[in-house]
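Renewal narrative, Specific Aim 1. Our central claim is that a sequence can be written position by position from structural information alone. The example that follows is taken directly from our test logs and has not been curated for this report. It begins with the structure tokens describing the chain, in the order in which they were read.
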């Protein structure tokens, strides 16, 4: 009965076919990685004679009667909807919100203290 021989790491290193196979796998992996990187980077290249196309933008956009510097985001959100019921509820919430009053009072106090410190 024959004993099974398990190859040791030194015998694998000395075996030229195993070393060549490992070297070929490493070389193949680097070649594939290199080719893919060249393909991907070549897609980002722009030719030397590239000229940006001219853009003609209109002086006024459709539905805009006159260009202004104010933004839609600068408006109060409850006034955008133009609902009297909503505006009444928001006004009532702002006047009866004691936490908001306290916070506003503290902000005003800190501003006054900052003005005193500057003078």
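The sequence written for that structure reads:
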């Amino acid at each position: 009965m024959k004993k099974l021989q398990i190859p040791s790491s030194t015998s694998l290193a000395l075996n030229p076919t195993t070393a060549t196979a490992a070297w070929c796998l490493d070389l193949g992996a680097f070649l594939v990685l290199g080719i893919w990187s060249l393909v991907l980077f070549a897609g980002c290249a722009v030719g030397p004679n590239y000229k940006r196309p001219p853009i003609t933008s209109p002086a006024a956009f459709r539905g805009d009667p006159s260009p202004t510097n104010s933004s839609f985001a600068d408006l109060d959100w409850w006034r955008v909807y133009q609902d009297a019921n909503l505006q009444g509820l928001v006004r009532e919430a702002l006047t009866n919100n004691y936490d908001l009053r306290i916070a506003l009072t503290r902000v005003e106090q800190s501003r006054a203290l900052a003005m005193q410190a500057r003078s």
